[in-house]
Amino acid sequence: MDNDKIINFAIKYGFLILLVGLVIFFSVASRGFASPRSAVFILQSVSITGILALGVTCTLVVDGFDLSIGAVATSSLMLSAYSMVILEQSAFVAVVLCLAMGAFVGLINGLLIVKFKVPDLLATLGMMFLLIGLQRIPTQGNSIATGMSLTDGTTAQGVFSPAFLWIGRHRFDLVLERLLPVPVLIFIAIAVGIWIFLALTRHGRLMYAIGSNERAAALVGTPVKKYKVIAYMISGVMASVGGILLAARLGRGDIASGNNLLLDSVAAALIGYAVLGAARPNAFGTAIGALFVGILLQGMTMLNAPYYTQDFVKGAVLVVALVFTFYLDARSSSGGKT
Fold first, then answer.
1. What is the dihedral of CA 243, 143, 136, 152, to 10 degrees?
2. Listed range (50-59, 145-154, 182-191, 214-223) with the worst mean pLDDT
3. Of 125, 174, 208, 253, which is the most exposed, with the fewest CB atoms less than 10 Å away?
4. Beta bridge partner(s), residue 253
5. Where are the bilayer-spanning segments (predicted)?
């Protein structure tokens, strides 16, 4: 009985204890890690990753998966830059175009999966490659910046709107100094919204039912196909929001800036399974997973760890967290039998 209590405690709180231990270790090993500036930098760095991860979480809830989020985010970044710098449109038009693009990509992904029965991994992988190629065509593979030379020999006359840059760069006043970036507030608001939607509404419960047993959910009248399409549309919109924030922070359409978004977002969403022993996709766990990835990368950077070790460490943490969660959960459910 005592053994079961220990296992249950480890399942529920083990990952949070690991997170606190990691913060303590980096605080001791690296001077300045525990400073407010470092904390804000971590939050800002995980805000975009976390938003994308929350979109992935919605697809995981319905037993799906979206590999196109990184490409959607980069396409959103390039589209916002193209619309303002090349087409000379306003910030409002740029944001609307990006959100519409994300929703449309999610709709296509959903229809490929539910109507044409294409496996989710293959459908979203194909969409990822399509978007990677498509976003490079208008500029022949070049990044977009104010005053850039166009293919017809002229110079781009458009600029990034100050209102657009405000989204990615403005920091609100705190007690001591301007520390709280807008992207962090947007991330928190989206995380709370997704958590409320999935955990507290009928629609969220139906999506979890679909993920647990799609056939049983369909037999009781749940519109399975509709909810699956909605999940992928949410994922597409979240990815486009991430791309908008990245473009607003950079002030240019950098073609290579979203290279790590997919891996970091997927890692955050999957690590969320281990938070509080949920053993299922959930918004709170995803947000904590994004924070964990940010703390890990910031700490390794401040310790001058080689950049090429970061993906290895992220992968190792992800594998350990998932094995720990699912193995102990299965062992506990079977009464301690191995």
1. 130
2. 145-154
3. 174
4. 144
5. 9-29, 41-62, 69-87, 93-114, 179-198, 229-248, 260-278, 284-305, 312-328
